Amino acid sequence: MDLTAIAQWVRDTPGLFLAAPPIESDSPFAELAAFPISWSASVRPNQRLGLLYQSVCSDLFKSNPAYALTAEEVQIIDNGKTRGAIDFILDNQHTSQQEHWEVAIKFYLLHQGYWFGPNAKDRLDIKLQHMLKHQLPLSAHPIVLQQYPHWQVTSRHLLMQGRLYINPFTDAPIPQDCLGYALNQTQIQGHWCYQAQFHQIREPLYLLERYQWMTGRTATNLRYEPAALERAVHCQSESGIFWFIVPDSWPQ
């Protein structure tokens, strides 16, 4: 796993939205010219993609002189019930203000006007609503103010990176926004299709490891051969296009 390539992707890739705060359109790591030489032990190639992404963001925040990391992955428990977890509390060294950051990496496929996750249990509008209405306000929750009185959060930030996929074999309008927030059209760059449409793809595809979903394949990736699908598979074509192939029953 090439962590430096992943870090470069996180640094250089814009967000899924072109929107005003609290949604961030660009990575907060854009000014970083170098990356951590020694990555934290929490960064592992076999972990879930969201955890891998958050671990890389953590190390990038730590190596960014613009920020000082105060806390990360803080579980908020109220009367024995977990309310959620705060990704990062950071001190901005330029403004002397404290910031709450939530980060997420997501891959969504356009179907009938909605952006679904490959497993169809996730959807962009639902995720965005959850992040804006639940996750970001956590740092102002009364239990947080009580348990962490030394925190003085003055701004909240949401970074959602990833890729959006359309089906080139289906004529469907591409949304310009989600919940009224403008989508970054440059991130609508992937393709998807049903297994029954696979024969219409005119170039070889290569299976991606989970950690390659961001950066893409290498010369060692195996060629994808059509087979009965139980769940979506993520590939990259010989020309570099990212593809999801989904079962014909998707998204049910």
Automatic annotation (TrEMBL):
Superkingdom, taxonomy of origin: Bacteria
InterPro entries in UniProt: DUF1853
Pfam families tied to this protein: DUF1853
Protein name: Type II citrate synthase
Taxonomic lineage from the root: Bacteria, Pseudomonadati, Pseudomonadota, Gammaproteobacteria, Vibrionales
